[in-house]
Each structure stands twice: as C-alpha cells, then as structure tokens.
Inverse folding.
C-alpha cells in the first residue's frame, strides 16, 4: 500500500520508517491518553482488518458476494478454542490424541487457516453456479448453518459446548512466554494487550503482503477476470471452478487466522459472536472502504470498528453534561449512524471511500461514456 | 490469397446436434478445417453460426456428435480444456474485461499457458518471477502485433471500437492457439478498419494460426477465405471454395428466397 506513493525512493523509505514508528508506539500513546480499553480496541481493530482483507479477496477481487463470511471466523475461533482449553480434555484423554491439545502457535495458526480454508471450499462448491443475489442468499444460509452447528453440537457428544460456549481458552504463548503475563524489556512494561497488539499487527501485515502479492499475480488477474466477465474468463481458458474455490479458500483462511486470534485474545468463544450481523459489518467494511483496494478496506475496517467505540466514549458523557440524563443509548446510535453512512456512501461515493483506480472507473462508467461520446462528436463534427 | 492449406486436418466435427428445448439449433453438422487455412462460416441470421461457434469453443455442450481437434477428443469438454488444447475465440458482442487495462486483458490470456500457484504468487520465487516477466513481455509484444501497444495502459472500455476488436484478438492469441475463432470481427467497422482487420487476419494466418471466421461482410469473406461453409436453419447447406459457394443455388435461395419459377 505504501508502494504506490509516488515519491523519490529515500522519501518513500523515510515515510515508511515514520509509519513503522507510529505503529510501534501507537498502543502506548493510546494507553497513556485514552486508557487501556483503547489499546484493547486497537487489538480488536486489527482482527477486523484481517477479516475484511479476507472477505476482500472473495467480494472485492473475485466479485462473489458472500454474506456468510463470519462462519470462517467462527471455524478459526473454535479450532483454537477447542485445542487450547480444558473442554476437550476428558474426551481426548486416553485416546492417544492428547497431542492435539496445546500445540504451539506456529502449528495452531496454520491449522486454523487450513481448516477454515477447507470450510471455504466446502461451502463454496455448491454455490459455484450462483451469482449476485442468489449467491448472497445461499452463503447467508451457510453462515447461519455453521453458527447453528456451533450452537447445537453439545449433544449427543459434547464438542462445542453449545450456547454456553468454550471457556478458559489459553492465551497465546510464543517463545515460551505466555501472553497473559506482562513482560519488561529495556525498562518498558509490555502488558498482555500490548503483546497481542504486536502479534496482531504482524499477522495483519502478513495478510496485507499476501493480499498484495496475490492481487498482482496470475491468480489475482484470474479472479478479477471472473468478476469482470465470467464467460470471457472461461473462454480464455481459466478454470473458473478452481479459481473461484481458491478465492473462497484464501478468503476463508484469513478469516480462520483472525478467528483463532480472537479466541485466544478473549479467552472465551460462543456462537453469539458469529451472528449474521457480524458478516454484514465485515461486508460493510469492505464496501464502504473500497472493494478490491487494500488501503480502502483497511480504512473501512478501522472506521467501522472504531466508530461505535468512540460513540460509547463520547455520547454518554456528553449527554450527562448537556442534559443531565441519558436519553440515547450509544448502541442504538451506532446502528443509526451505520445506516446513514452506508446510504450516504452509496449515493455519493458508490465505489467506497478510498477506491482503487479500477473500481472508481467502474462506478463512473457513465461519465466516461459521456466523455467518449463528446470526443466522438468532436472527431466527426 | 493463395490457398496455403496443406490438407492436414486440424479440427473435425461430424453429426453435431444441439437442441434448446424444442429448437433444433444445430442438426447433423459436419465440417473439417485444415491446418493453415482461413475457414469461413456464413449463413442468414439465426442459422446457428454462433451456436456452432459456442460448441466448438466449449461454451455449449453438444447433444450428439463427434468433435476432435488435432486428433484429441473434445466432445463435451469444458472451455478451459478446449482453450488448453489450442482453440481460442473472440465474441460477436465484444467481451473484454472492461475495467482492466488492455495489457492486463492480454496477460489474462496467458493464464492457460502459465503455472504459478498461490505459493508461487506469495513467495515470488525466481521461477514465478521469470514466468511473470514472460507474461508481461509476451502481452506487450502481442499488443504490438495487433497494433495497439500505445494503448496498453488504458482501460479496455476506453479503447475505440476497432481497438477493442484488436485487443480481443490479441487476448485470444495470448493463449497460443492453433485455431483462432473470430465471431464477426468486422461488425460495425468502417471500410478502412475492415481492410486493416483483413490484413491482420492474413498476417495471423501467415504466422501459422488457422482461422475460423464468422462474418456477414460477404465481400470480405470472398476475398479472404480459403473455404466457406454455409449454415441455414442449423444445417450445413454448402461447403467449398468461395467461387463455388457463391454460385450454389441453395445458398442463393437461403439468402434471397426461392426463385418464383
């Protein structure tokens, strides 16, 4: 995303260095000025960035409208939760599968990504012939099915612990250090939220790099070709079935990573975290920010995640001060603002807040045609 | 143009039937295209030309018949298999990837001849980088070949109509076809553009690519094709060199109606 800043090289490097420093000190600045809740919010925002980038592959690149994306977040979260909590211990003890529990992070994360990816293929394959509205409805159904499974797989064998969810999930432990404990390096105390911040930041950067590289590859071009014209893509020899499934799998695997991190960060998962509304919020992040454009999607994720948090911090004190009582619940206000923002963006900037050049062109096809017509007339006249 | 066909059969179909519900769009169609020729397909509107085209490029699955290309059986094969074995096409109503640049459009055409997978794309190993550079270079040279290199960075939809047609041809050529199937490439072109297009097709043929051509411009067809087949109501009613076809009474009847006597 920094690559397209058109500057001289040293200036670009300097810019990147400043950006890196800002990212590095951000949690401490936020913690000192706004309190630790905000560092926590920062961590969660990172998770949403990963989610949005994953959905961006499916919706933004390949043009497949997926309304059940949160299911893959759920798969990742449950994989981590079940393998890192006491919940499955009675079931697995004595079966020879105890090794599954408490695997190192560098094994669990790829495993969560892989399983989510497999789910992506499983849920994607029946939808291959569907487009647009129909695809959205079917994926919406699949998303709900996954949540209902999580909700009901507590009998006959208790796998997911049903609506109670899985508790006592262990925090991430990396290089022998548990993230639940603070660590002091060079006299600076890194608390749990800080450690998670750096871990999530690293993963988000990894996902950004993977997204950028996929986008400018043979695979990325095939995705965009399918989005642009599926028949023409077929006629160019693209195996649309495999390429679409690959988009589902890649998008889902990003969601799986994010979900696993969510589980370890919260220490608790339940089906309630994976409702349809979450899918819609993530989709709104992608659409609002700018489909198919990585910086735009990141912006969308940050804006949509942080707005409600800001509201929570601002609305109540403001009401107390101005009218002395609390008339409006910030939670409700959030939905109102969400709706207004979406309508506004769709009217004024349908391509999103920070679109790619490509998308911008797409949504202003009429303008281009007008220009073209004018040119033609000028040429003939 | 002299007949450069050396008689070696490249594509052969026989007994092809295609029905859409009650409509018998293609009925017992047989034809064979020789290596190195320009083979024309004409017929009145609704005769089944485009249907046959879609069958030959895998977009439609025929109901019955035989379809071989270079001896490989392509009956009811998926489009990507057909392209991989060496048949590429353009569309009657141009179907470019409008919001990709001209260059990217042609690069997509290289998809079928390249292998980079997700791991290659992510890690950018030397092999993938070399492949990507090759794709880029080939796409550039194809844009040059069809004469629109200077428009490489523009969105496909912003190109002029004639250039869009050329871009579609470049994109099809990027798949390294032995048979290039062009569906009404001269439609909507002025005489100058048509003439340029004719030269381009001759150049492509002289570079060793066999061409299958649907076209309404009879003058263009007569001057360009080595052999012509005529379809009417889903049946092949004539086949031969342009001179024969032009004087075939059944062809005249199909186009102008039966003579009163």
């Amino acid at each position: 995303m920094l690559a397209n800043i058109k500057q001289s090289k040293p200036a670009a490097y300097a810019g990147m260095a400043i950006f890196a420093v800002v990212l590095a000190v951000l949690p401490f600045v936020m913690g000192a000025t706004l309190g630790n809740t905000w560092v926590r919010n920062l961590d969660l925002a990172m998770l949403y960035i990963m989610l949005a980038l994953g959905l961006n592959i499916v919706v933004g690149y390949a043009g497949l409208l997926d309304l059940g994306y949160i299911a893959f977040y759920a798969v990742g979260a449950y994989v981590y939760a079940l393998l890192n909590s006491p919940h499955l211990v009675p079931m697995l003890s004595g079966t020879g599968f105890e090794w599954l529990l408490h695997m190192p992070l560098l094994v669990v994360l790829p495993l969560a990504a892989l399983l989510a990816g497999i789910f992506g293929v499983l849920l994607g394959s029946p939808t291959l012939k569907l487009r647009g509205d129909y695809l959205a409805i079917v994926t919406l159904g699949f998303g709900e099915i996954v949540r209902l499974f999580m909700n009901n797989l507590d009998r006959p064998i208790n796998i997911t612990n049903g609506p109670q969810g899985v508790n006592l999930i262990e925090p991430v432990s990396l290089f022998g250090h548990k993230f639940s404990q603070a660590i002091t390096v060079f006299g600076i105390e890194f608390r749990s939220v800080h450690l998670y911040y750096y871990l999530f930041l690293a993963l988000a950067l990894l996902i950004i790099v993977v997204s950028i590289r996929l986008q400018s590859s043979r695979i990325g071009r095939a995705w965009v070709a399918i989005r642009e014209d599926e028949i023409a893509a077929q006629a160019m020899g693209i195996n649309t079935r495999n390429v679409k499934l690959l988009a589902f799998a890649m998008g889902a695997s990003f969601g799986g990573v994010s979900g696993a991190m969510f589980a370890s960060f919260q220490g608790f998962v339940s089906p309630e975290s994976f409702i349809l509304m979450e899918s819609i919020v993530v989709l709104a992040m992608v659409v609002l920010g700018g489909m198919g454009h990585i910086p735009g999607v990141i912006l969308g994720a940050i804006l949509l995640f942080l707005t409600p948090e800001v509201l929570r911090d601002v609305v109540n004190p403001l009401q107390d001060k101005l009218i002395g009582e609390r008339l409006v619940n910030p939670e409700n206000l959030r939905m109102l603002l969400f709706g207004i923002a979406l309508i506004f963006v769709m009217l004024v900037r349908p391509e999103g807040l920070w679109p790619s050049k490509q998308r911008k062109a797409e949504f202003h096809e009429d303008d281009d045609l007008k220009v073209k017509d004018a040119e033609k007339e000028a040429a003939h006249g | 143009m002299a007949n450069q066909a050396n008689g070696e059969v490249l594509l052969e179909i026989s007994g092809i039937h295609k029905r859409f519900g009650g409509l018998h769009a293609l009925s017992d169609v047989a034809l064979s295209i020789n290596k190195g020729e320009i083979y024309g397909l004409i017929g009145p509107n609704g005769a089944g030309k485009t249907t046959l085209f879609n069958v030959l490029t895998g977009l439609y699955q025929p109901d019955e018949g035989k379809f071989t290309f270079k001896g490989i059986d392509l009956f009811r094969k998926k489009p990507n298999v057909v392209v991989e074995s060496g048949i590429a096409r353009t569309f009657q109503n141009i179907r470019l990837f409008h919001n990709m640049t001209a260059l990217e459009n042609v690069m997509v055409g290289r998809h079928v001849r390249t292998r980079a997978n997700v791991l290659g794309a992510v890690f950018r190993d030397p092999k993938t980088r070399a492949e990507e550079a090759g794709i880029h270079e080939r796409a550039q040279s194809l844009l040059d070949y069809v004469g629109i290199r200077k428009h490489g960075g523009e969105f496909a939809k912003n190109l002029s109509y004639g250039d869009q047609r050329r871009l579609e041809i470049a994109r099809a050529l990027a798949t390294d076809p032995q048979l290039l199937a062009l569906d009404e490439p001269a439609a909507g072109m002025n005489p100058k553009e048509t003439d340029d297009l004719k030269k381009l097709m001759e150049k492509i043929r002289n570079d060793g690519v066999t061409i299958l051509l649907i076209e309404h411009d009879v003058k263009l067809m007569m001057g360009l094709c080595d052999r012509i087949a005529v379809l009417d109501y889903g049946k092949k009613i004539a086949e031969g060199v342009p001179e024969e076809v032009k004087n075939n009474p059944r062809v005249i009847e199909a186009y102008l109606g039966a003579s009163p006597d």
Remarks:
- The two ends of chain A are 44 Å apart (CA to CA).
- Residues 126 and 138 of chain A are 9 Å apart (CA to CA).
- The beta strands of chain A are 173-174, 177-178, 183-185, 188-190.
